[in-house]
Amino acid sequence: MIEVSGLRKAFGGREVLGGVDLTVERGSVVSLLGPNGAGKSTTVRILTTLLAPDAGTVRIGGFDVVRQVPDVRRIIGVTGQQTGVDRLLTGYENLVLMGRLFRLGTAAARRRASDLLERFDLTEAAGRPVKTYSGGLERRLDLAISMITAPPVLFLDEPTTGLDPRSRAGVWETVRDLLSGGVTVLLTTQYLEEADELADRVAVIDGGRVVAEGTPASLKQRVGSERLDLTFATAEAFEVARIVLDEAHTGEGLVLSVPVDGARDVREVLERLDRAGAEIADLALTRPSLDDVFLSLTGSPTIGAAR
């Protein structure tokens, strides 16, 4: 549904995109991650026809974003980092207004507004001015507005930035509902757990290029195996375990970290320690996260808002 090949863009002689390749299958979610200045937002602006590329090709639903702009705009919806609602109007009035701006007739705009209010669980708040909405409600309204023409492709540019965890979870549920209807989504986000939660595939962009792409699980496997973190009751037990588990890495305090691959390895480690008489005070199984993937691929511990 989204095809990007050799995408390039420079500003003032500085190359921001150096040949981005990306594919998003119909009905799937791809999350685009990148550190500050990686080219993430520039890519989205080109894909949504807001910026012209210097080179390369982009097709959305088969339409070229340079030569067929009106066709592309008819099949996409966009939710940006800042909400696009009029906070003095009610939720219902915002939706009707956007419907009219998209050239729906008055009756059709009103029907669509009512449908979206129900779909996005906004019916109770429909008659209130948006300035009285919580952050989560306002974000849901923004998503509803992006779906006013029922576009098959949706671009979500950091849709939950600034929301509390409960509101963020509500937006996630709304996105899942959209996916169940077959919408194709390109998601950029500051929250790696959000990409892990929603994305079928993740593309990591750094230095203006896609440096890794795959499912969240496959990217985590590239970083390393699971680890069993063991905390020991005494220094004596710790020393015994360090000898028994010579492949373990020492952590802070009386902690050893052992690479494991599944339940069989965990059981074997615990049996070896039990035979040696090394008493364990606590244990935890740690799996690689997208944070680990991101740090490994880009050298950056956080992503923030990239350009």
From TrEMBL:
Compartment(s) of residence: Cell membrane
Alphabetized Pfam families for the sequence: ABC_tran, DrrA1-3_C
Topology within the bilayer: Peripheral membrane protein
Chief location bin: membrane
Stored PROSITE patterns: ABC_TRANSPORTER_2 (PS50893)
Residues of the ABC transporter domain: 2-232
Signal peptide start and end residues: none
Sample GO molecular function, one term: ATP binding
Entry's Gene Ontology BP terms: daunorubicin transport; doxorubicin transport; response to antibiotic
UniProt entry tagged with the keyword Membrane: yes
Gene3D superfamilies recorded: P-loop containing nucleotide triphosphate hydrolases
Alphabetical keyword list: Antibiotic resistance, ATP-binding, Cell membrane, Membrane, Nucleotide-binding, Translocase, Transport
Domain of life: Bacteria
Coiled-coil segments on the chain, per record: none
GO CC, alphabetical: plasma membrane
Similarity remark: Belongs to the ABC transporter superfamily. Drug exporter-1 (DrugE1) (TC 3.A.1.105) family.
Protein's name in the database: ABC transporter ATP-binding protein
